[in-house]
Amino acid sequence: MKRIDLNVYDPSMGMLIDVSDELTFKQHKIPGSVNIPYEKLLLHYKELLHKGQKYYIICLKGIHSRKVVSILEFYGYDVTQVIRPEDKSL
């Protein structure tokens, strides 16, 4: 599983998707990120994502983003987990 620190991420690298629920996203929004909640992304990934693009997945604690990246990698998507600086223990 690929991982990068949020401080390394740049929007030119690919879309940053926050898989947090809507309330958490509003409270901890990262400028330029798009909110697609965890369950919605896993249920509708074929309609929401394109295999030729790079995606960077983040959430508040790193738990859901790690699961999403693991599943989407299995399905052949180019995904990287983005770790918030406070998540370095994960």
Overview of this structure, please?
The protein is an alpha/beta fold and 90 residues long. Strand 4, helix 3 and strand 5 form a beta-alpha-beta unit. It is globular. The mean pLDDT is 94.
- Proportion of helical residues: 25-40%
CATH topology: Oxidized Rhodanese, domain 1
The total of helices stands at: 3
Shape: globular
Structural class: alpha/beta
Number of strands: 5
- β-sheet strand percentage: 15-25%
List the helices and strands and how they pair.
Elements: E1 3-5, E2 15-18, H1 22-27, E3 34-35, H2 38-48, E4 54-58, H3 63-74, E5 78-83
Parallel strand pairs: 1-5, 2-3, 2-4, 4-5
Brief overview:
This protein is an alpha/beta fold and 90 residues long. 32% of the residues lie in helices and 22% in strands. The mean pLDDT is 94.
Key traits:
90 residues, alpha/beta, 5-stranded parallel β-sheet, 32% helix, Oxidized Rhodanese, domain 1, globular, single chain
